[in-house]
């Protein structure tokens, strides 16, 4: 939370200076008037400027970025953040050298990081915002890989006439597999097992 105090000849002037320093609009802040301006005696003696306290109300994007920066700093990594905010979700794509540590095995570290960011940002919020955390476009590449794998294993199940069991995946990755194959009329998919070992079965239709 960013807080700044400013003075000015009028309350409006003081608030305007605070907004300029923060680089935000009036809709992004809460204003507390600490002291009203006073003209003093005959407008000369004892005159006092207006004094205000302006508090920047962090939105989901700002909270997510600040938290992510703290985590990155603690890991001593050099990372640039590319943030895109849409109505439905916010995407933060991290770019930089040697960021494999943030992805982890099959994206497990990245998924855990995304889960923690979402949990923190949406805590006690009436309106939840979905935060997608990515590294160098990894999620798109992984999705393409899973889609190709789904088609390959679906064909294998059909040709051999028996089910193919995939390795355990996250719910997000299982959804990609199910979606990739939902239009097929020669096979069907379902999941079985408990998290985090839940896996997809691809079976041929009789």
Automatic annotation (TrEMBL):
Q: Which controlled-vocabulary keywords does the entry list? A: Cell shape, Cell wall biogenesis/degradation, Chaperone, Cytoplasm, RNA-binding
In terms of PROSITE patterns, this protein maps to: R3H (PS51061)
Segments for region (Jag_N domain): 5-55
Q: What's one GO BP annotation on this UniProt entry? A: cell wall organization
| InterPro entries assigned | Jag_KH (IPR038008), Jag_N_dom_sf (IPR038247), KH_dom-like_a/b (IPR015946), KhpB (IPR039247), KhpB_N (IPR032782), R3H_dom (IPR001374), R3H_dom_sf (IPR036867), R3H_KhpB (IPR034079)
Asked if the keyword RNA-binding belongs to this entry, the reply reads yes
The superkingdom of the source organism is Bacteria
Ranges of residues in domain R3H: 140-206
Picking any one GO molecular function of the record gives: RNA binding
Q: Which SUPFAM superfamilies match?
A: R3H domain
* CC per GO annotation: cytoplasm
Q: Give the residue range of the signal peptide.
A: none
Protein localization: Cytoplasm
Alphabetical list of HAMAP family matching this protein: KhpB
Which family does the UniProt entry place this protein in? Belongs to the KhpB RNA-binding protein family.
Domain commentary: Has an N-terminal Jag-N domain and 2 RNA-binding domains (KH and R3H).
Function according to Swiss-Prot or TrEMBL: A probable RNA chaperone. Forms a complex with KhpA which binds to cellular RNA and controls its expression. Plays a role in peptidoglycan (PG) homeostasis and cell length regulation.
Subunit field text? Forms a complex with KhpA.
Return the protein name.
RNA-binding protein KhpB
**Classification lineage:** Bacteria, Bacillati, Bacillota, Clostridia, Eubacteriales
């Amino acid at each position: 939370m960013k807080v700044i105090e400013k003075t000015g000849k009028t309350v409006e002037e003081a608030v305007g200076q605070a907004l300029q320093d923060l680089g935000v609009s009036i809709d992004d802040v809460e204003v507390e008037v600490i002291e009203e301006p006073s003209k003093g005696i005959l407008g000369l003696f004892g005159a006092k400027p207006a004094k205000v306290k302006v508090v920047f109300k962090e939105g989901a994007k700002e909270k997510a970025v600040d938290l992510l920066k703290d985590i990155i700093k603690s890991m001593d990594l050099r990372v640039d953040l590319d943030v895109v905010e849409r109505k439905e979700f916010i995407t933060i794509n991290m770019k930089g050298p040697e960021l494999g540590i943030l992805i982890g095995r099959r994206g497990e570290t990245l998924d855990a990081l995304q889960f923690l960011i979402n949990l923190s940002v949406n805590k006690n919020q009436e309106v939840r915002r979905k935060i997608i955390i990515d590294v160098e476009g990894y999620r798109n590449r992984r999705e393409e890989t899973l889609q190709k794998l789904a088609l390959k294993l679906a064909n294998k199940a059909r040709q051999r006439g028996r089910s193919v069991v995939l390795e355990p995946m996250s719910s997000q990755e299982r959804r990609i597999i199910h979606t990739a194959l939902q239009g097929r009329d020669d096979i069907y998919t379902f999941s079985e097992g408990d998290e985090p070992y839940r896996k997809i079965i691809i079976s041929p239709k009789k």
